[in-house]
Amino acid sequence: MDAESIKRAYKRYAGIYDGVFGPLLASGRQAAIAHINKRGGRRILEVGVGTGVSLPAHRADNRVVGIDLSHDMLEVARGRVERERLDNVDALLEMDAGKLAFADNSFDVVVAMYVMTVVPDPQGTMAELERVCRPDGEILIVNHFAATEPGPRRTVERWLARFAPKLGWHPDFTLDNLLAGTGVTARTIATVPPFGLFSVLQIQRAAEAAG
Fold this sequence. Notes:
Distance between the termini: 41 Å
Radius of gyration: 16 Å
CATH architecture: 3-Layer(aba) Sandwich
Strand content: 15-25%
C-alpha cells in the first residue's frame, strides 16, 4: 500500500472517523494515553494523529506534536484543537511517518496508535520512531497484530488482506512483521478490547552508551 492509497482511504474516512472508529478503537487510545499521563513535563510525538480524537486526553503539562499523512484528517484535528483550546498542542503537521522531519532525540515519548498496519514500510517507520525518541524514552505502539496460529481468525485476516488498499490497513500484519530487523524488543505487551484484537506495545529505548 503506497502513500497515495493511504491518502485516498483516509480522505473517505475523515468525515466519519470519529463516529465510526472512535468508539471501536477507544480502549487502545485510552490505555496508551493513561500510560503517557503518568508523568508530566514531557514532549510527546503522536504519529498518525488523524482527527486528533486523543488530543484532549493528554495532560496539560505535556507538550504534544501530532503528524499525519492525511491532509483531510489533519483538518479535522486542527478544528478540534481550536474548538477545545488545546494549548498544549504545539503543532499538527502533514508528514510521512517513515521520513520524520525532526532531529534525533527530539521527544521523550513517541506514540503511534493504529498506524503500523497502514504505513508502507513498518520497519523503516519503526527506525524513525526510535531515532527521534531520546535515549531512555518510550515508544508506544497500539495496533492489531494478526494471528500466527492456524484458525478462523487467521483465515479471515488473510482473506481480508486482498482488500488492504481499500481498507487503508493490512489485516494480516504480525508482531514479527513490525519488529523484524529493527533491533528493538517489546518491554510489555497487553491486549485491549474489543475482543482482544488490539495490543498496546511498550518499548523502552536503550540509553546511549557512555563515551
